[in-house]
């Protein structure tokens, strides 16, 4: 089980701020998790569609090859716009 | 070098003068403090639709960690004597202060450079998202390539 969080415009499109999910067999990295979620159909295909989608693993920005472990906290969000 | 620093993410406004006093109280080694205050700006996209408000969302937990990592990175590049970062979230009005960065150093060069570095990295690495509201509705602000360019000029090696 991992915790997945969604922020900003992505949170609104998905209508969800986050969820606990079980990784499908073979889902070992961020890119594969993104595909698992997008495979649910709309509105989750936004995860596949959105260009420049960013990811964080355990509250650190990572690229899509970052490996997942049970208990991880993963976040997906658009490019940041603070400051 | 470990820099004495404090990072806050909060809804409330901040007091620049009070933060400056707190950063420098009892210190005689600090030669200068560079400060940056970011304000909510109406970008003026549409003169008929002035900005009514801006809401800032963030990622509690990661935001503080990201800001602390940015401050630590600044401390590894310049000999800093103190850093204070405050970033607000929630509902803000045009003209409201959003972000404060104070950097204390022995000399102005390090203070100016580190202050700019912290802001440039904050803009591309701290998980905040702005949403602008006008009478026509609310829209998420797009990230700007110029912010990525500003951050990348500090890349080392």
What's the helix count of chain B?
Answer: 4
Share of helix of chain A, binned: 10-25%
Radius of gyration of chain B, taken over Cα atoms and rounded to an integer in Å: 16 Å
Along the chain, the helix and strand elements of chain A come as EHEHHEEE
CATH architecture of chain B: Alpha-Beta Complex
Can you write the helix and strand succession of chain B as a string?
Answer: EHEEHEEEHEEH
Number of domains of chain A: 1
The first-to-last residue Cα distance of chain A is: 34 Å
Strand order of the largest sheet of chain A: 2-1-5-3-4
- As residue ranges, the low-confidence spans of chain A are none
Q: How many H/I helices of chain A?
A: 3
- By CATH, the topology of chain A is Ubiquitin-like (UB roll)
CATH class of chain A: Alpha Beta
Could you describe the 3D structure shown?
The complex is a heterodimer of chains A (83) and B (157). Chain A has helices at 8-14, 30-38, 46-49; strands at residues 2-6, 18-21, 54-57, 60-62, 73-77. Chain A is α+β, with helices and mostly antiparallel strands and 83 residues long. Chain A has one domain (2-77): Beta-grasp domain (Ubiquitin-like (UB roll), Roll), CATH 3.10.20.30. Chain A has a five-stranded mixed β-sheet. In chain A, a hairpin with a 2-residue loop joins strand 3 and strand 4. Chain A is globular, with a radius of gyration of 12 Å. Chain B has 157 residues and is an alpha+beta fold. Chain B has one domain: Aldehyde Oxidoreductase, domain 3. In chain B, 32% of the residues lie in helices and 33% in strands. Chain B has helices spanning 16-24, 62-77, 108-125, 145-152, and strands at residues 5-10, 32-39, 53-58, 80-88, 90-92, 97-105, 128-134, 137-140. In chain B, helix 3 packs across helix 4 (145-152). Chain B is globular, with a radius of gyration of 16 Å. Chain B starts with a strand and ends in a 5-residue tail after the last helix. The chains are: A alpha+beta (83), B alpha+beta (157).
């Amino acid at each position: 089980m991992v915790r997945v969080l969604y922020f900003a415009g992505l949170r609104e499109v998905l209508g969800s701020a986050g969820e606990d999910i079980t990784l499908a067999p073979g889902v070992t990295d961020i890119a594969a998790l993104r595909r698992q979620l997008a495979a649910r159909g709309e509105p989750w295909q936004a995860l596949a569609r959105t260009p420049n989608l960013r990811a964080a693993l355990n509250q650190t920005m990572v690229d899509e090859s970052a490996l997942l472990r049970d208990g991880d906290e993963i976040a997906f969000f658009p490019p940041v716009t603070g400051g | 070098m470990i820099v004495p620093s404090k990072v806050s993410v909060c809804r409330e406004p901040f007091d620049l003068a009070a933060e400056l006093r707190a950063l420098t109280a009892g210190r005689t080694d600090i030669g200068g403090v560079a400060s940056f205050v970011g304000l909510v700006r109406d970008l003026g996209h549409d003169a008929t639709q002035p900005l009514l408000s801006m809401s800032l969302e963030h990622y509690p937990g990661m935001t503080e960690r990201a800001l602390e990592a940015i401050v630590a990175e600044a401390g590894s590049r310049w000999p800093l004597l103190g850093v204070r970062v405050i970033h607000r979230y929630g509902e803000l009005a045009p003209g409201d202060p959003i972000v404060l960065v104070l950097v204390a150093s022995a000399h102005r060069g390090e203070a100016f450079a580190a202050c700019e570095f912290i802001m440039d990295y904050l803009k591309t690495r701290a998980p905040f998202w702005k949403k602008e509201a006008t009478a026509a509705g609310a829209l998420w602000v797009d990230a700007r390539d110029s912010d990525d360019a500003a951050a990348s000029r500090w890349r080392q090696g």
